[in-house]
Design brief:
- With about 475 residues, the chain is of the alpha/beta class.
- The chain has three domains: about 30 residues; about 210 residues, Rossmann fold (3-Layer(aba) Sandwich), CATH 3.40.50; about 180 residues, Ribosomal Protein S5, domain 2, CATH 3.30.230.
- It contains 13 helices and 23 strands.
- α9 crosses α10 and α10 runs parallel beside α13.
- The longest helix has 18 residues.
- The radius of gyration is 26 Å and the shape is globular.
Amino acid sequence: MARLKSTFVCQNCGAVSSRWQGKCDDCGDWNSLVEEAASAGVAAGPLKSKRKGRVVALAPLAGETPEAPRVVTGISEFDRVTGGGVVRGSTLLVGGDPGIGKSTLLLQAAGALARQGHRVVYVSGEEAIAQIRLRASRLGLADAPVLLAAETSVEDILATLAVGEAPALVIADSIQTLWTEMADSAPGTVTQVRASAQALIRYAKQTGTAVIFVGHVTKEGQIAGPRVVEHMVDAVLYFEGEGGHHFRILRAVKNRFGPTDEIGVFEMTGGGLGEVRNPSELFLGERNVATPGAAVFAGMEGTRPLLVEIQALVAPTTLGTPRRAVIGWDQSRLAMVLAVLEAHCRVRLGDCDVYLNVAGGLRIGEPAADLAVAAALVSSRLNAALPADCVYFGEISLSGSIRPVSHATARLKEAQKLGFGRAVLPSSASGGADGGGAYRGIGQLVELVASIASTARGRSGDEHGADD
Ligand code: TYD
Ligand code: MG
């Protein structure tokens, strides 16, 4: 293939530019443009075609469609996130930090499927066969009939897969190590990754084999290089967890065949990833009830309620600009809650450092956590422990009022199941909720602050942060 001319491709977003520049115009990333041959890749292919278009039959929207056939691993936390099993002929991308357990998870899924009698091929471009075998024996999967290959060439992989019956599932670990002769840029570049992914996706669609790609994640938390691949696959799952914790969370961020708000919770043990059937118990496991600054949030992850402890530390600052550090929650939402507490509830926080942590390494995206965060902050500021059997949920608006959130009944049920008889929640939700607990519906954030302040006063009689 003759080299026509060079183009410069952003390794972050895949945008193409005709000359080199320090900053990508599309995504604004610096120093991400890499020279690649213009004839390379897949985009160049169809443009050269002189073929006249063929008439395709247009189909009506209404019509009978059978349920997509799925392969179910039996690892229920994994099946839940994929929407009830991996759809045949579909492609999945599993992203996550190095060492988080992607290869472990997928080897366990592969082993489970192989034991059911499915033909499963695990292709690793990162580990040797001996390494994978070693891991399998540690996982108790040494006898599972998974077929292994240590290979990075897409052409060789496709030729291998063409022999014999088409597998039910192929795992490609990782997408960044694959390379194809169809593109003549270096392995790991956007063009290579995209061309390799496309070749395997085409294979999946033709044969009905499900293909799972493993993708590495950059420091910014995006799947490295090929954000383009996210658009090409049917589902994108992220496998995440906080460094020192052994909990791992599998989260769907895109799924053409299922919901995207479900999570699967795993625990990394010496024998691989164990499923966590009741995550609330796990996230509350190490709870120290008598400490000020801890509030239990009754959250929802998809269809599943999840109780988690929010911890806050508010301490006088020694710095000119007080520190605000957040783990597991949104920094700007914390700023908003602090501003509302300061402006509408007269809780002085401007001269305090604020640290906020979601226990267990969980990441919360729900606005319903606002009220639990506020409760933890005020509790720490006033040095008053919150009731040990109380959960909090509700969204705080900028005016200081508490907005209702969805699934109040499910949240309260889960709380009761775990022995939390009391709840502070939006007033509109408390009317509909039943269950016999002591539920306090509030309309304004200031009501919560007042009740925490009154317990603080009752306990010590001291003057604290809230103005009189
Ligand atoms: P791995 O699946 O190799 O991560 P990734 O493919 O995402 O890079 O997981 C590696 C980590 O998991 C490693 O630090 C050791 C730990 N681990 C266990 O704790 N127990 C186990 O049984 C296995 C297989 C791994
Ligand atoms: Mg790996």
